[in-house]
Specification:
With 114 residues, chain A is mainly beta. Chain A is 0% helix and 50% strand. Classes of the chains: A mainly beta (114), B mainly beta (116).
Chain lengths: 114, 116
């Protein structure tokens, strides 16, 4: 069964460094999402992406964050200068099209900022 | 702003019991509601999705209901098993833009333990 994949599973970085989290959505899906979950807290929506542009973003998604679909398969989240509070689990999700409602989530990347 | 609340926060029951997890949301203008399962340190597995026009959905031992007007959903688990132990999350999609690109709003989850 097709699934969303994410790499790496765990990323450790120093505060102030740039990180790129990678996702491969399900191949025929058109809408892509990033969410984060700080330890012990709710899963929070960050951004949605369609047709090579951001569709919607939350107040969390500030100028430190950017997303990109560099090729036909990958979808990336970049954090330019990481802060301690960026430590969280980051989930990628996708849906096939506008009429397809179920979001499929990847296994997540655990980001630890030291 | 949509708020999603799940009660109880934690639940521990003996194997074999039927149980109900509750989810409430403050804005009834939703497009759909999705229940997920999350195992420790893992991703989110979709269990059931209910469209705003539907009242319930069933999958195996799971049954989810939706009362949109009152802002409530329940997840019913029949004949619970130790393998059902996990955190169960409820999430809603806003209905104002007709679905599609909108991000989900999640509850904090119910941490469920089924004792063998």
């Amino acid at each position: 069964e097709p699934e969303v994949t994410q790499t790496p599973s765990h990323q450790v970085t120093q505060m102030g460094q740039e990180v790129i989290l990678r996702c491969v959505p399900i191949s025929n899906h058109l809408y892509f999402y990033w969410y984060r979950q700080i330890l012990g807290q709710k899963v929070e929506f960050l951004v949605s992406f369609y047709n090579n542009e951001i569709s919607e973003k939350s107040e969390i998604f500030d100028d430190q964050f950017s997303v990109e679909r560099p090729d036909g398969s990958n979808f990336t989240l970049k954090i330019r200068s990481t802060k301690l509070e960026d430590s969280a689990m980051y989930f990628c999700a996708s849906i096939r099209d506008r009429g397809d409602n179920e979001q499929f989530f990847g296994p997540g990347t655990r980001l630890t900022v030291l | 702003k949509q708020e999603v609340t799940q009660i109880p926060a934690a639940l521990s029951v003996p194997e074999g019991e039927n149980l109900v997890l509750n989810c409430s949301f403050t804005d009834s203008a939703i497009y759909n509601l999705q229940w997920f399962r999350q195992d420790p340190g893992k991703g989110l597995t979709s269990l059931l999705l209910i469209q705003s026009s539907q009242r319930e959905q069933t999958s195996g031992r799971l049954n989810a209901s939706l009362d949109k007007s009152s802002g409530r959903s329940t997840l019913y688990i029949a004949a619970s098993q130790p393998g059902d132990s996990a955190t169960y999350l409820c999430a809603v999609r806003p209905g104002y833009s007709g679905g599609g690109a909108d991000g989900l709003t999640f509850g904090k989850g119910t941490h469920l333990i089924i004792q063998p």
